Amino acid sequence: MxxxxxxxxxGTYQGKWAGVSGYMEKAPDAQALQEIKEETSLSEADVxxxxxxxxxxxxxxxxxxxxxxxxxxFHVKDRNKIKLDWEHKEARWIxxxxxxxxxxxPGLQEALARVYHK
Length: 118
Fold this sequence. Notes:
Layout: E1 2-6, E2 17-18, H1 28-40, E3 47-52, E4 56-60, E5 65-69, E6 72-76, E7 88-93, H2 108-115
Antiparallel strand pairs: 1-2, 1-7, 3-6, 4-5
């Protein structure tokens, strides 16, 4: 699984590990592909949808906000094509069971559980 470490230049959760994410400006499927392109430079042809999960609400008491997360799982055809944008400072490929070892954005494990099946 690819996780991305958020840079200091983003508005929230600087330094935390996350998946590709963004604000909803389009329909969820189109937004997911746009965010993948913006954050990793991968095109629609570079990824393959494996599964999309039921949206979940993630409440962040500290920020006083509730995020609505639309979980997706994509297969990356060629990992060497990934180029991070300014939103992230590091990328790592990990096993799903290693996620607990990383300080992540709220709800990441719950979102993964909605799309990942062993």
